[in-house]
What does this fold into?
Amino acid sequence: MSAKIKIAFLSLAFFLFFNSFCPADTVETKYFTILFCPDCSLAEFAKNISTGNSVRFETYNESKSDITSVIKSDTDALYLEVEDVLDMYLDSYHGRIKVHPDNVSVSKTAYGNTQTIEPAIPSIYMPSQNTIHISLKDIDPGILSHEMAYALISNYFVLAPPAKVQEILAGYVEYSVRKRIGSLPRNQ
It folds into this structure.
């Protein structure tokens, strides 16, 4: 294969890989740019991350601007809670959240289309992109706060702590959020 063909092939592969996620909607918050895939509902996202009164979303009849303002306030409030739990503060932080329709799409983004991951992962933070990839079907305040903790830890330290330490801290954040909203699993 000639060098020109290899370069053309690699350029096409690079283009397809990085442009496979084409957002339908974008919401800018103080701390995040949230990119929604074409199959993802802003109202469903807002309902799933809400830690307050979710009755306002039961009909999904609110206007897009109302849903957008709720997403902005709830996402930023959750990020501020993550900062408080970890006692780490980065006012200048700004990351991305890519909302995928399901966990299979998240897994394919994380591990490539060629590898099958069982079970598929509902969310992942990718430090190289400063991006949280999350499944709309699986999202809740606990999962989102877990990934936000990874993002904060990754950007707070000059040299990131070991993966096990990051997982313990992110797990503690998720536990704290779930405890506050009353969604801890019950012992059986």
